[in-house]
Amino acid sequence: MSENETMAVYCGGITKSYGIGEARVQALRGIDLEVHPGELLMLVGPSGCGKTTLISVIAGILDQDDGECVLFGQDLKQLSHNQRVVYRGRNIGFVFQAFNLIPTLSAAENVAIPLLINGMPMDKAISRAFECLRNVGLEGRENALPSQLSGGQQQRVAIARALVHNPRLVVCDEPTSALDHETGRRVMDVIKNLAVNSDRALVIVTHDARIFDFADRIAHMDDGRIEKVERNN
Hints:
- With 233 residues, the protein is of the alpha/beta class.
- It has helices spanning 3-6, 51-58, 81-91, 107-117, 122-135, 151-163, 181-195, and strands spanning 9-18, 25-35, 40-44, 66-71, 74-75, 92-95, 169-173, 201-205, 217-222, 225-231.
- It is globular and about 50 Å long.
């Protein structure tokens, strides 16, 4: 078994650009990164340095221009579109910075979506969604619409949705940005306890220094490159 097959995430020489001609922007400039099973890795760096692009490639939302990105031994670029959708639905949870909640669905219905996509009956999916919402401190708000929730509450709904199907890889873009210190740490406790074990991994993009101590390692990005990766003491 090659080394990249033993990693939760293996990125080798990843490049990604947007636009053409003079408007072309190089977002990723040869990213080499490994995430170990059972690890919580944080990506930090200035705005616009490529962090969100990188996690979008890792989660199979974007295709890289060049290089290799392998998740638990599977190169998503080798899958057809339909195969990739199925793989993501079963194995990846993504917390978007913009939340991406469906406004006409309740909190519980939003959280249940990954389970329904994977074929779980509605009653079981909603029951599991209620459990996940309790875990992120939203007991009693399960039937509220997103418009009836604060920004911080919407963020917790998005986090519950990412965790509800017990994915092998959880990818989060600024998961605590709309939360106060106490709530942010409580949510991080939930994320780490539910998402990280010996056959799972977690990648978090954050500017929030208050949660750095939850990381096993911190990767510093700048100008589309990984500058250094350090173990967190």
